[in-house]
Every structure is written in C-alpha cells, then in structure tokens.
From TrEMBL:
Gene Ontology BP terms: isopentenyl diphosphate biosynthetic process; steroid biosynthetic process
Domain Nudix hydrolase: 161-311
Name of the protein: isopentenyl-diphosphate Delta-isomerase
GO cellular component: cytoplasm
Organism: Purpureocillium takamizusanense
GO molecular function terms attached to this record: isopentenyl-diphosphate delta-isomerase activity; metal ion binding
Family designation: Belongs to the IPP isomerase type 1 family.
Domain of life: Eukaryota
Length: 341
C-alpha cells in the first residue's frame, strides 16, 4: 500500500491506533497537538517534519534500530508551547534522522542507483541529474528527496517512486502559446516538442511545501528559475503574482526503456511578452502557436511531443485557452489531483 501521510496522521492522533504500512519500523513523536503520543509503526520512507493534517504540526521519526534508549514504552511525554502561529516541541527523545537520498537507499536496498545509466550522456545534463527532487506520496505530501537520476529511472518508477514537477504555459499578448523543442542533449525525452517549460521544484528553501498554497508558491519560484535557465527569461518579466495555478496531474510515462517520468505536475499559466535567450544545452528551437496551429502540429507525423504535454492537450488545454482572458478563474486552484495513469 502506498504511504499516505494523512492516514498516518490520523493514526498518530490515536484515532486508528498504530499504523502498519509495511517497510522499516520507526519510532515517531507527534507534535502540534495538546498532548504527545508515541507509536511504533512502519513506513516505506523515513519522514521528518511532515505536514500531515490540519491538526498536526509535525511528526518526527527515526529508524527504530538506530534510536537511542529509552525504549518505546518509556518515551517521555513532550511539553508543548503553543501560540496562534507557532508550535514548539521539547522532548528527550532521540533526534530524528533527516530524510535524504541515502535514507531512501537504506530503506529500499533494491532501488537502482547505477551510474552506468548516465554513461555517454552530455556532461552538463549528467551534472543536473544530481539535483534533488521532492519525493511525495500519492497525495502530493512530501516524504523526502532523491536525485533526478534516481527519480527518473524506470526501475525506480516501477517501484512507485513519485516526485513533484511543474509545467508552464506562457502566452504572448496575441494569446499564442510558446513551445520549445527539447535539446538532443536532454537525457529524458530528447528532441521532443513540449510546452514552454517543464521541470521540477527542488528540495531547497523556497521551492518546497506541504500545504497546497505553499507548494504552489514553490512551483512558481521553480518556474521562474527554469524559465531563466532554459530560455533566458528574466524573473522580472514573469512575476510570481502573474502565474496562475490551475491544477495538478498525476501521470506516469516512459521515455525509453531506461528513463521515464512519474510526477505530480503543477500546471501554471502566465501571459507575458518576454525576451528569449535560449540555452542550447536545454532547448534547440522555439515557436509561438495559436490553438489551431498546435492542432495542426499534432497531425504532423514527423513531430514528437512529450507525454505530459499530450495528456494536458487532450484533456483541458484548449478549453482553458479559450478562457485565457475571460473566465479562467473558474478553472483555477483546483484542489483535487487529476489522475491520468
């Protein structure tokens, strides 16, 4: 069963008793409530400070076999200093282990980390594969981080590894959509046409988030960063407040036999006239298209498009596009994740 942080939160509150999701046993300390409780339960990942529910501020966990005494039964009850804005927990329990790629490897000894998969690829693209993506559960709650390489190997995707992403759709003042053709150097989906910019919020300050508003803000900051990196669009031309969040899609798609995607993808619209300074290591071509022109391009058998772009186009893109200047609000800030698996 996939890890569900909300279910874990309910169990930690004592509403359902100790949880058992399979995997390594953890000792966890509940924070953010009127009293402290400790449970022995199992998770497939080792979360620390997980935004779990409206009622719980944090859950600190460590691997049972590496926690220091006292044992579970003797855990002290923490004291809480509460206010309307912050919750501070003081406890003598052992500090939780941080969630890192190394922790994932320890808990999942069969996860694929083979560097041979990168052999023969572009040096700069190999370097970028070391960036740390946000690993999430099926409900888009962060449970840790792992490198882009680990997140995009199909051997790991087939084990359920899921990460957060974003897709930007940038329109000019003629309501034409800016497309890019991915560079041949790209390790995943090279040479394919796609939306303006698609990449990942990273596990860095300002781009993470456990609540939807915080996660949307993180995706927007990541979008600014990558629009500059790939297309040379400066953040002053694409202010955070001008991005409009529509929805999230959960999809899975192979690139070839080795690489693929398994993402919760944040869909962001923005209307702006921008200056381009293309990074040839990322993008080999661009073009602005009308809705009718894009439909014609899809009919051209010589052109290839990324799977997430096709999914979005075949579902809601053209309807959203029609309402770009009037009525888009009714499509914005969708709370539920669209499952496209």
């Amino acid at each position: 069963m996939p890890f569900d942080a909300r279910a874990a939160a309910r169990d930690l509150k004592g509403l359902g008793g100790p949880a058992d999701f399979g995997g390594a046993p953890l000792r966890c300390q509940l924070g953010g409530g009127p009293r402290g409780e400790s449970w022995l339960f199992k998770l497939p990942l080792d979360p620390i400070v997980v935004g779990t529910s409206h009622h719980i501020a944090q859950v600190d966990c460590c691997l049972l076999d590496s926690c220091n005494p006292p044992p579970i039964a003797a855990l002290p009850t923490p004291s809480f200093a509460m206010s309307t804005t912050t919750t501070t927990t003081t406890t003598a329990a052992a500090p939780a282990q941080p969630m890192t790629a190394e922790t994932i490897l320890r808990l999942f000894p069969d996860i694929d980390t083979n560097d041979d998969a990168l052999s023969g690829h572009d040096e700069e693209q190999i370097r970028l594969m070391d960036e740390m993506c946000i690993v999430t559960d099926d409900n888009d709650l962060p449970v840790g981080k792992a490198s882009k390489k680990i997140c995009h190997l199909m051997t790991n995707i087939d084990k359920g590894l899921l990460h957060r992403a974003f897709s930007v759709f940038l329109f000019n003042d003629k309501n034409e959509l800016l497309l890019q053709q991915r560079a041949s150097e790209k390790i995943t989906f090279p040479d394919m046409w796609t939306n303006t910019c698609c990449s990942h919020p990273l596990s860095v300050s300002g781009e993470t988030g456990s609540t939807l508003p915080d996660a949307v803000e993180g995706a927007k900051r990541a979008a600014q960063r990558k629009l500059d990196h790939e297309l040379g669009i400066k953040k002053e031309q694409v202010p955070l407040d001008d991005f409009r969040f529509l929805t999230r899609i959960h999809y899975k798609a192979p690139s070839d036999g080795k690489w693929g995607e398994h993402e919760v993808d944040y869909i962001l619209f923005i209307k702006a006239n921008v200056d381009l300074n293309i990074n040839p290591n990322e993008v080999q071509a661009t073009q602005y298209v009308s809705a009718d022109k894009l439909k014609q391009l899809f009919d051209d058998p010589s052109l290839k498009f990324t799977p997430w772009f096709k999914l979005i186009c075949n579902s809601m893109l053209f309807e959203w596009w029609e309402h770009l200047d009037s009525g888009l609000d009714k499509y914005m800030n969708e709370q539920e994740i669209r499952r496209m698996l």
